[in-house]
Amino acid sequence: MAKRKIIKIDADQCNGCGLCLPNCPEGAIQIIDGKARLISDLFCDGLGACIGQCPQGAIAIEEREAQDYDERKVMEHIIKQGKNTIKAHLNHLKEHKAEEYFQQAIDYLKEKGLEIPLEEARSHEAHAACPGLKAIDLQDSGAKISTLKNWPVQIMLVPPSAPYLKDASLLIAADCVPFAYADFHRELLRGKILLVGCPKLDDAIIYQDKISQILKNNKIKSVTYAHMEVPCCFGLIKIIKSAIEESQKDIPFTEVVISIKGERLK
């Protein structure tokens, strides 16, 4: 269980008006004993669509240890409520730019053979707001020098449902490594799917959530973490190992350390 953003309801301020309910199609909130209650961490995406609808100011966002939000379980609940609720949920995800959850919702509807009640959603993969976010398999690109097999590569942008993650060997690389290590493509990247990030500058909580989702949702053959010898790079080791442990899978882990001079130390 990792820390993440999730709503908090102040029972003393809540008057049980229920105005928050229509703005939570995920079903995370119910009125119980005259008060709005968060009934499941699994259903709360932490985006806070319900906050602005509370006249009492009883709802806020906090960061705490919580079960991972599960878009598939949310969709199981939502499809029972009909087309309008599905549409409201998809709009909610798009408005908050929750690209990963949005794509998971679309994939779920496709798997079930259900209509996608949102015109923009039908063409989402081909007309994403940012073309750089589209998941692309580059294995047949014909490149003669680069061994890169996937796009995007930034940890923050890679969707956990990307097709190239299936049966993949992952290379998680601190973003200075490809610049420092001359044999990066030949020795480290060849045959692997690349995830790049900076453990010093980026949000470690988001990293842990993202890597955990990738390992849980895909059959991953191995994980290699390549990083520089500087202290700030070592923080991601614990995050990766925790994600492997949370996945409850036997995934081999390898660490590669590169010196500032570009030498392979480990």
Blueprint of the fold:
Layout lengths: L1 E8 L19 E4 L2 E4 L20 E8 L4 H9 L3 H13 L3 H13 L7 H4 L13 E2 L12 E2 L16 E7 L2 H4 L3 H6 L3 E5 L6 H14 L2 E9 L6 H13 L5 E6 L8
Parallel strand pairs: 7-8, 7-9, 9-10
Antiparallel strand pairs: 1-4, 2-3, 5-6
Helix pairs in contact: 7-8
Q: Could you explain how this protein is built, in words?
A:
The protein is 29% helix and 21% strand. The chain contains eight helices and ten strands. It folds into three domains: 2-66, Alpha-Beta Plaits (2-Layer Sandwich); 71-122; 131-258, Rossmann fold. The two termini are 31 Å apart. The protein is elongated, with a radius of gyration of 21 Å. It has a four-stranded parallel sheet with strand order 8-7-9-10. A two-stranded antiparallel sheet has the order 1-4. The chain has helices at residues 71-79, 83-95, 99-111, 119-122, 177-180, 184-189, 204-217, 235-247; strands at 2-9, 29-32, 35-38, 59-66, 136-137, 150-151, 168-174, 193-197, 220-228, 253-258. It is an alpha/beta fold.
